[in-house]
Amino acid sequence: MHWLLLKIQSTEPQAEPLSEVLMEHGALSVSIEDAHADTLAEQAIFGEPGDPPPGIWQQNIVTAMLDAEADVQALLATVQSELQLDGLKYQLEQIEEQDWVRATQAQFDPIRVTDNLWIVPSWHQAPNAEALNIVLDPGLAFGTGSHPTTHLCLSWLAQLPKAELAQANVLDYGCGSGILAIAAKKLGAGQVIGVDIDSQAVIASRDNATNNQVEAVFYDSADYLHEPFDIIVANILSSALMVLAPVIAKSCKNGGKVALSGILESQQEMLLARYSEWFEMDVPIQQDGWVLLTGTRKCP
Predict the structure, then answer these.
(1) CATH of the domain at 216
(2) I want to staple 235 with a disulfide (CB 3.0 to 4.6 A). Which of 1, 98, 159, 261 is the partner?
(3) What is the CATH number of the domain that holds 54?
(4) Cβ(164)–Cβ(158) under 8 Å?
(5) DSSP structural state of residue 173
(6) DSSP-based helix, strand, coil % in the chain, nearest 5
(7) Distance CA 75, CA 146 (A)
(8) b (16+ CB within 10 A) / e for 229-246
(9) Does residue 123 lie within any of the structural domains?
C-alpha cells in the first residue's frame, strides 16, 4: 500500500484556506512548512512567551497526504475553483507503506555527553555499558540531551567534583523530562529535587526517574520551593530566567552554585547583568549559538 503527497507552493494569505479546502475534499492530513526550510532564507517565526503572534511564513509549501487512488487533477481543479486561484504550482510524490515506529526510532541514536555519560533511547543498546547511561525516550517533554542547552548543563554537572556533588542537594528548576535531575543523581548527588509549572513534565520526570532507577523527587513549582540548595540548574527560556532571578537566588545557599541555560548568545549580557546582583558570574560557555551561564552565590 502507498499514499500520495501533494505539495503545493503557496503565499502566506493562501496557506491556511488552501489547507482547509484540501481537508474538506478528502486529504488524510495537511501540513504547512516554510518553503525555504533548511536554507539561508529560512524564516524564523517563533518567539518567546509574550512576543506577538508572528503568523506563518511568507512563502510556504502546503503538503496534503492523499489516498493512492485519489484523483489529483480533479482535487486541484476544485481547490482552484473554490479559492479563485489559477495556475497552482505543485509536486506529487508517492510514499510506500513502512514501519513508522522503526523509521522514527532510527532518527534517534545514543547521545554522548562525556565518555562516562550517555543518553540512550530505550530501544538502543548502550554503547558503553560501564558508563552512566540515562534511558530517555524523545518526545515525552523538553530535554532529551540532543539540544545544546541540555548538553551544556549535562557537561557542567559531569565536571563537578565528585566529593562536592555527593554532599550537595540539587534543584532542577523547570525539570521538563527530568534529565538534569536524573543525571545529577546518577553522577552521585545527594538529595535531588525537580520542579516544573507543567504537570505533564512532573509526571514524565517521575516516570523517567523510575525507569532509570534513581531516587529523585519532582513537584509542581507552586507547591515546593521552601529550602535553599547547594546547586541549582535551570534550563528554561531566557525571559523566564529574567523574571525568576530573585526566586532562583533565594533558593540558592550562600556559596552555592547556579547553572543557567536556554540563553542565546545575544541574550547573555542581559542575563549576566541580572544575575550579577546575587552571584559571582563565571565566563560564559557557548555551544552552537547557545550559552551556559554559571556562578557562585554571594555571601551577604
Answers:
(1) 3.40.50.150
(2) 261
(3) 3.30.70.120
(4) no
(5) E
(6) 30, 30, 40
(7) 41
(8) bbbbbbbbbbebbeebbe
(9) no
Please tell me whether 196 is known to bind a ligand: yes
Task: Give the pairing type, strands 229-235 and 170-173.
Answer: parallel
Q: What is the DSSP letter of 267?
A: G
CA distance 262 to 233: 11
Whether residue 181 is found in the same domain as residue 47: no
Closest CA relative to residue 108, chosen from 86, 127, 129, 123:
123
Q: Does 289 lie in the same domain as 155?
A: yes
Q: Which residues of the chain have pLDDT under 50?
A: 45-53, 140-142
Is 282 marked as a binding-site residue? Answer: no
Give counts: helices (H), strands (E), the chain: 9, 15
pLDDT in tens, 49-100: 344 445 567 788 999 988 888 999 999 999 999 999 888 899 998 876 655 5
- Determine the pLDDT at residue 49: 38
Smallest Cα–Cα separation from 152: which of 239, 234, 81? Answer: 234
- Residue 41's domain spans which residues? 2-97
Among positive and negative, which fits the CA dihedral 237, 287, 165, 256? negative
Sign of CA dihedral 227, 219, 181, 190: positive
114 is in an annotated binding site: no
Q: How far is CA 240 from the centre of its chain?
A: 15
Torsion of CA 27, 28, 34, 38, to 10 degrees: -130
Instruction: Specify which residues 148 forms β-bridges with.
Output: none
Q: What is the length of the chain?
A: 300
Asked whether residue 174 is marked as a ligand-binding residue, the answer is yes
Q: 199-211 and 179-186 are packed helices; what angle lies between their axes, rounded to 10 degrees?
A: 30
Pairing of strands 111-114, 117-120: antiparallel
Q: What domain count does the chain have?
A: 2
